Structure formats: C-alpha cells, structure tokens
DNA sequence: AAGAACTACAACCGCCGAATT
DNA sequence: CAATTCGGCGGTTGTAGTTCT
C-alpha cells in the first residue's frame, strides 16, 4: 500500500525516469565505452552523472555510467579473491550492520559494495549456513539471537552509532571547513575544484589510457554498437579482459595513494564515516572476544584522532 | 559427449533521502 | 513549503562459465 502510494505520488509529480528507455543501451559495457567514460571523468571528475551521457555521447543512462565507474572503472578497486581477513570482516560487519553493503564496503576501501554484496550472496551466506549447521555460530555473534554475549541490542547499538556518526560528520566538516573553498565539498559537482588526490589518480588513468590505446586492442572490427552481427557476449569477454588489465594496473598505482587521496577521489566511499564507525566496531569486535584470528586485523587505515576525540 | 544444474558477477531496477528550484 | 531532480543504496536478474550427472 505504501508502495503503490509512492508510485502514484511519483506519477503525479511527473518525475522522469533516469533515462528514457528509447535509445539507451543496456547490457555489458564495451572497452570503447569504458574509455569514453574514463576519459570524461578524467577530465571532469566523477559526479554530475546526469550530464555524462549527453556530454560523452554515450548511449547509457546516468545511473549506468555512475555504476560502471564506481563498481568497475574507479581506481583502487580490487576484485575477486577475497582474503580470509576480508571475509571475516564482511561476516562480522554483516552481522553488525545488516545488509548495508555500502557501509560495509567503507571498511574495505578497495572493495565495492556490489562486490561485497555479490560475495556475500554467493559465498558467505552458504558458508555461514554450513558453519551454523556445524556448530552454533551464534556464539560468535553472527546470528541475531547472539545478543546474549553483547550487552546492548543491535537496534540500540545502531542508534548509538548513528548519532555518533552524525556527531563525527559535523566535527569533521568543522575541522575541514577553513581549508575548503565554500561549497565544494563534493568536487564532482564543481569540476574545477578537484582535490589534488583525484588529480593524481586521473593522471594515472590518463597514462594508462594512453598505453592501453596504443596497445592493439582486440576490439572486433565491427565494434559493438551495431548490436547485431558478432556475439555481444564474446565482445564482452574481450572487454573484460582488456579492461581488467587496464584496471589492475590502475589499482596498483592507486593503492599507493594516500588515504586522503583515496578519500577525495571517490565521493561514494564515506571513509570518514567508516573511520568513525571503526572505533566502535573495534571495541565491539574486540570486546566480544572474536579472537579467532590471531592476526585478525580490521583494516589498515588509521583512526583519525580528530574524530576519535569526539567519542 | 551432452545436457542439466550450479556458480559467479556485472548490470539493472525501484526506492529513498538530500539537495535544489 | 512544495515540487522536482539527482545520486546512492539494496535487491534482483541475466547470462557466461563451470561442474556434475
């Protein structure tokens, strides 16, 4: 009922879909499209996604462009091969935060929410089920009924977390405000006010793009756009391979970026929040004696003292 | 060897909240 | 303050690849 109300409401409002269905391409991205998107972002920075299709001539909707960038093309992304630590992180965080993949992803800076979500759905869910079958997993705090070992309920905990995050956000923006040109926190929307971190990463992208363009691309002669002819899925495989090489080299470079740089290069990763949450998380995790991994580490990014101070 | 079943993951869809007009 | 736009999020789907029968 709420949903139908909502739809009706939207109908009245006349809100347009993010993309009109006609003339909008769907399905896997081709290397050409990736290049176009990356070079556009390289020039203008991420953000203002609405303008991307028109400015680039890509026959994709803005959402699709954003998704492609955040989940695949963005520098610093690691894909596949989740480490044991990452796995544990995800499991704990999922137990703690629920299916808030974006929040969980903020603790794993090199992973996208989509990736984590997929990994959870395909691997971890089953794994946990298995484990739960074997030995009451709940004693580790993974099930909702695990609150016995935790003094406060998850709901309470989350409320606390939220208020604390809010405080931290405020504190951070206060702390940062003197340095910031007014109103350009989200550099994506102000294309000329790019933080240096992003510039450096885009320079890397540019270099890589050059190299990539120079190397013989195995793009089918007919290119994709003609929808028919060659098998589009095979083309996609090609695209995956070429893009993968391209991307892994990007991520290699960007891995050496400073946390600040990686923070600024991606507005979709609320690392600030992540850091603030981390202090609680650490407490929670360690308090609960989740000491299964001697070498278990939460994450390698350091806690920002300014933020921790507020707690 | 062939087909069915399963797995992995990129991409899409719809909803929501924040920002803007 | 209401209307509208936009970006982000989580759930879901589609399909290529792999394993099983």
UniProtKB/TrEMBL annotation:
Cross-referenced InterPro entries: Homeodomain-like_sf, Myb_dom, Myb_TF_plants, SANT/Myb
Entry keyword DNA-binding: yes
Ranges where the Myb-like domain occurs: 21-73, 74-124
Domain HTH myb-type span(s) in chain numbering: 21-77, 78-128
Low complexity composition bias: residue spans: 248-258
Biased composition annotated in UniProt, kind: Basic and acidic residues: 233-243
Keywords: DNA-binding, Nucleus
Keyword Translocase applies: no
Cellular localization per UniProt: Nucleus
Region: Disordered, residue numbers: 173-198, 216-274
Segments forming a coiled coil: none
PANTHER family documented for this protein: MYB FAMILY TRANSCRIPTION FACTOR (PTHR10641), TRANSCRIPTION FACTOR MYB30 (PTHR10641:SF1063)
Name by which UniProt lists this protein: Uncharacterized protein
